[in-house]
Design goal:
With 203 residues, this protein is mostly helical. It has one domain. The protein contains nine helices and no strands. Helix 4 runs parallel beside helix 9, helix 6 packs antiparallel against helix 7 and helix 8 runs antiparallel to helix 9. It starts with a helix and ends with a helix.
């Protein structure tokens, strides 16, 4: 493996660094964007029961805010019920924007890696071909070993860049879609809670 990296030239170093960063982002986002972490099951039903029992205290709302991203959005609306009832919907929207922003953290970096690493591989290809033509200029075409070094470097960096860029692009698109789905579901839960609050006329 070390020899393979060395044969790819110095451009293998940024490609390897990008691969490490990409893998770290993929693992971190996979853990953060799990549905059961974002939206614990039965959360709105638990809030409905707490409202019915009259046990929705500020401490309970604070605990809800720390429990999950969905809890943070719902807690924002519940806190507005006690202070500014007319701003419940606005509180949901504002908290939702912050949550979505956190969902999208590092996705731009992942997209940048997906776009950059194939270009680094292409740059390696160009540099390798320059070495090939430089070798031809000096030694002619009689020594295939001299030519093979430049061609090998060109092919290795191209393959490495694509090997990092393709999975990075796939996961970046996947996470973008997941963020959209989770955002829609959080909005639906917030609307459901808003209906509950209006029906019960909590104030």
């Amino acid at each position: 493996m070390i020899e393979f990296i060395k044969s790819g030239g110095w451009l293998m170093l940024p490609i390897i660094a990008c691969s490490v960063i990409s893998l770290a982002i993929i693992i971190e986002r996979s853990l953060v964007l799990r549905r059961r972490v974002v939206m614990p099951e039965g959360l709105v039903a638990d809030i409905d029961r707490a409202i019915g029992r009259g046990s929705l205290s500020p401490d309970r709302i604070a605990l809800l805010r720390r429990s999950s991203p969905l809890g943070r959005v719902l807690a924002a609306g519940l806190a507005s019920v006690q202070s500014h009832p007319a701003r419940i919907s606005d509180a949901f929207e504002e908290a939702g924007r912050h949550v979505v922003h956190e969902f999208e953290r590092y996705l731009n970096a992942l997209g940048t890696i997906a776009a950059t690493t194939p270009l680094l591989g292409l740059l390696g290809t160009v540099i390798g071909m320059i070495k090939v033509f430089a070798a031809i200029t000096v030694a002619g075409v009689g020594d295939p070993q001299i030519l093979a070094g430049g061609i090998s470097e060109a092919l290795i960096t191209t393959a490495a860049g694509l090997s990092v860029g393709i999975p990075s692009l796939m996961f970046q698109r996947y996470f973008r879609g997941q963020v959209r789905e989770l955002s829609v579901e959080i909005e639906q839960h917030a609307l459901r809670l808003l209906e509950i609050l209006q029906t019960r006329n909590v104030n």
